[in-house]
Amino acid sequence: MTDQERRRGRDESEEERADRMWGELIQEVRVAQTGVQILFGFLLTVVFQQRYAELSDVDRTIYIVTVVLGAAATGALIGPVSLHRLVAGRKVKPQAVRLASGMTQIGLFLLLATMAASLVLILRVATGGSQVTWVVAAVVVWYLVCWYGLPLWSRRRHTTR
Question: Is the backbone of residue 49 left (phi > 0), alpha (psi -120 to 50) or beta?
Fold first, then answer.
């Protein structure tokens, strides 16, 4: 495949495309990082609250799973920054962009799981458990539509072959 055949849409080299995509990815990650860090910070404080001792064993297990998911999401969403620092100047930006994109997708999935688990815990404590499953399922479906369904639909509909 020639350079000309590889160039579609924008007139940019592979390195220029990687630079552009890296900039876009970092902007996207900043939004998710902020959200996951705030959520994770709040989760870390729960164990120090007086009501924590009143939680049932099931709710404590949900809390622990939620904290672990939050920690994993934080790691995956901060990972692209560390990746960039460690490979900067080594002429591997296109590969780094692909790896960072994968880390971001994993981080977003873990963020979705963290938010769902947080919602389960909060609603169980707030309502005593009634209708929690249906409410959380509806919110998760909404996240899936917004985060994956509409973007994939748009990509399929608007991508030229």
Answer: beta
Contact 33, 78 (CB under 8 A): yes
Per-residue pLDDT reduced to its tens digit, 92-124: 999 999 999 999 999 999 999 999 999 999 999
**pLDDT per position as a tens digit, 62-96:** 999 999 999 999 999 999 999 999 998 898 999 99
Q: What is the pTM of this model?
A: 0.86
CB 114 within 8 A of CB 140: no
* Residue 34 tokens, joined: 């902020």
Give the pLDDT score at 160.
Answer: 78
Residue with tokens 């985060």: 147
- 96 vs 72: CA distance, rounded Å: 20
**3-state secondary structure string, the chain?**
CCHHHHCCCCCCCHHHHHHHHHHHHHHHHHHHHHHHHHHHHHHHHHCCCHHHHHCCHHHHHHHHHHHHHHHHHHHHHHHHHHHHHHHCCCCCHHHHHHHHHHHHHHHHHHHHHHHHHHHHHHHHHHHCCCCHHHHHHHHHHHHHHHHHHHHHHHHHHHCCC
